[in-house]
Design a protein that fits this description.
The protein has 146 residues and is an alpha+beta fold. The protein has five helices and six strands. The chain has a six-stranded mixed β-sheet, covered by helices on one side.
């Protein structure tokens, strides 16, 4: 009987560890980013932008320098990816998701774009924050590698 109680106790501890606040946050962040990937692959820039904080304080830092604001970031994407061929198929790789403070995480990863106009890939670091119950990118630093 003691063995059964110990196994149940051990399994319940494992289940609790899998649903810790940190694990739930990371899962929510990945779900938001995967929704962005799906929107991108459906050539839906407006749905892709739902993952970004709709604020003038949003910061995007890429090869063209710093862009402030949600609308300016949307315009940058539209200019950089003007057609469906430029969008291509996006795949993310998440290398690390870690807390900065309560409700704020950084995400380091890679992106891969397979396109008829030429494949490209790069790296990114995002700062994401839970705002009104939803995870939003509040800062994006992306750089092309190829």
């Amino acid at each position: 009987m003691k063995k059964v109680v110990f196994v149940v106790f051990l399994l319940s501890g494992f289940a609790f560890a899998q649903t810790s606040p940190d694990a739930l946050d990371k899962k929510g962040i990945q779900e938001m980013l995967m929704a962005q990937q799906k929107a991108w692959n459906n050539y839906d820039i407006e749905a892709f932008m739902e993952g970004y904080w709709k604020s003038d304080e949003l910061t995007f830092y890429g090869s063209g320098g710093v862009i402030k604001g949600w609308q300016a970031t949307l315009e940058r994407y539209k200019k950089s990816y003007p057609t469906k061929d430029h969008f291509g198929k996006l795949d993310f790789v998440f290398n690390e998701i870690a807390p900065i403070s309560e409700g704020v995480y950084y995400v380091m990863g890679e992106y891969y774009l397979s396109r008829t106009v030429g494949d490209t890939n790069g790296i990114f670091m995002l700062v994401v924050k839970k705002i009104e119950g939803d995870w939003k990118v509040i800062a994006d630093t992306s750089a092309k590698v190829k």
